[in-house]
Design goal:
With 109 residues, the chain is of the alpha/beta class. It is 18% helix and 28% strand. It is built from two helices and seven strands. The longest helix is centred in the first third of the chain and has 11 residues.
Length: 109
């Protein structure tokens, strides 16, 4: 299934770890598909907060909460944890459709 080509509304929350280069597209598409009050949660690099282009994205679609991992998490490349992958600084970015307040920064683990 190609998520970015979906047109059917989705009646629930969306939780995913999208390909980093398509993260912005995933945010916009997910918020388009879900009903008001539901959430989109994306697991992304902490560096996703950077960038002039994403500043505009965050102004238009402010995340409600960014949950920063207080320790680096090992990731399996393409789901393969046999080969040691790099340890990246990551966070859960949480949007709630219809939310327009400040973004809260919190930590987990």
């Amino acid at each position: 299934m190609d998520f970015l080509s979906q047109t059917e509304p989705f009646n629930g929350d969306i939780v995913t770890n999208p390909p980093y280069k398509y993260a912005e597209d995933f945010i916009v598409k997910a918020l388009e598909l879900i009903p008001e009050g539901h959430k989109v949660c994306l697991f992304l690099k902490i560096q996703f907060l950077e960038g002039r282009k994403r500043k505009d994205l965050f102004k238009k679609y402010p995340p409600k909460t960014v949950w920063v991992s207080s320790s680096r998490i090992q990731h399996g490349k393409n789901g393969n944890f046999q080969n040691k992958s790099s340890m990246m600084a990551t966070a859960w970015y949480v949007w709630e459709k219809g939310y327009s307040g400040p973004t809260y920064l919190k930590w987990f683990n």
